[in-house]
Specification:
alpha/beta; Rossmann fold; four-stranded parallel β-sheet; 5 helices
Length: 158
């Protein structure tokens, strides 16, 4: 299973989801079953690592964010089994590249995997221009949603 997380610049939300899922995959010994990557619908930060603030908040929780920003491409639609947009704008931008509508079923919103107190969220808010609380909110959502992804697509025998 190949999973791709997508946000705007690929330096905050999608790298956080990528890092948390990679961490859980390692813990659950699922590396043979699940591959993870992240991308952005813009190329503003191509070649850069995750935002320093996002890294700090992830590190406080024991996660590393190894992804390097890259732009989302049409080829990603073919290569990945599951493409998870962090918000509705990026969801629409992904589907614009799917001119024939062949890949729509594999594109999902991240918050559709959230449970409990996070079911009220429709999108993962962009923390870039906010303060520390915004990054913590993203981490809370990401941790919750990653468990939902694993429950749905991970090894059923765990």
């Amino acid at each position: 299973m190949k999973i791709l997380f997508v946000c705007l610049g690929n330096i905050c939300r999608s790298p956080a989801a990528d890092g948390v899922l990679l961490h859980r995959i390692k813990e659950l010994d699922l590396a043979e079953q699940i591959q993870v990557d992240s991308a952005g619908t813009s190329a503003y930060h191509e070649g850069e690592g995750a935002d320093r603030r996002m890294q700090e908040h992830a590190n406080k929780r024991g996660y590393t964010l190894p992804s390097i920003s890259r732009g989302f491409t049409k080829r990603d639609l073919e290569e990945f089994d599951l493409i998870i947009a962090m918000d509705k704008s990026n969801y629409r931008n992904i589907l614009k590249l799917d001119i024939e509508g062949k890949y729509k079923n594999k594109v999902k919103l991240f918050c559709s995997f959230c449970s409990g107190p996070y079911t009220s969220y429709e999108e993962v808010p962009d923390p870039y221009f906010g303060g520390a609380r915004g990054f913590e909110e993203v981490m809370d959502l990401v941790e919750n949603g990653v468990e939902g992804i694993l429950n749905q697509y991970g090894n059923k025998e765990r």
